[in-house]
Amino acid sequence: MSKLKYKVTEFNIVGQLIGFIIKDGVKIKYLRLTVSGLEYWVKMPKEMRNTLDQAIQPGRWLAISGMRQLCLKTGKIKFVADEINLLPDSTCENPENLQQPSPKTQKPKASILVCKKSSCAKRGGLEIYKAIQENLEAHGLENDVKVKLVGCVKECKKGPNVIVMPDKARYQRIHSEEVPKLIDKHFKTEKPMSV
After folding, report:
1. Which of 37, 119, 144, 166 could connect to 156 by a Cys-Cys bridge, CB 3.0–4.6 Å?
2. Can you give the pLDDT at residue 3?
3. CA distance 71 to 123
4. Tell me, what's the pLDDT at 89?
5. Nearest C-alpha neighbor of 16 from the set 83, 94, 92
């Protein structure tokens, strides 16, 4: 039986803001969106709450990307925003045009997810994050591959943990020296790296 409790994938949605879920009377915890007649709650990370554009008000159209976490035991899905963009009102006059492209035409975005929680951080997770960024920049891939620090991936004892998307390849107990090989394997750099 698999020990995997969660399945983590990326999401990109375009929807109209219905309202907010407020915590402690002042902190925005979730954005409530309507997408094709369905309501979604998208969690706002703490660091995004302070930088939230004040122009975001109910009725505005938003493009949101982030991580979707599916609990394999309960079937519950949790959406956590990485990026929120206000769409100009002129682009939203015809909402049918805002539907997401079908999976066949939408090219999956490449990203590398690095766990930032305490156990992985203590085992070198932040150093891995920096090494990945430096290697991507060295090969001119910083605009093609996004590096993200993410919450717990539920493999704390095997940290630091890294997930390469869209391949969904998981790496555990990774060291900085292994980063060039990982990038070459998944992103076929122009000049081959020594193994």
Report:
1. 119
2. 55
3. 26
4. 64
5. 92
For tokens 């049918």, the residue is 96
Q: Which residues contact 118 (CB under 8 A, 6 or more apart)?
A: none
Buried b (16+ CB within 10 A) or exposed e, 175-192: eeeebbebbbebbebeee
62 bridge partner residues: 15, 86
Residue bearing tokens 């929120």: 84
Region 68-85: mean pLDDT is 84
Residue with tokens 């997930």: 163
CA distances (Å), 10 to each of 13, 68, 72, 110, in order?
A: 10, 6, 16, 10
Contacts 24+ apart (CB under 8 A), 99-105: 99/14, 99/36, 100/12, 100/13, 100/14
Whole-angstrom Cα Rg for the chain:
18
Claim: this prediction has a pTM higher than 0.70: no
Mean pLDDT lowest for which of 104-113, 141-150, 165-174?
A: 104-113
Structure tokens at 151: 């919450």
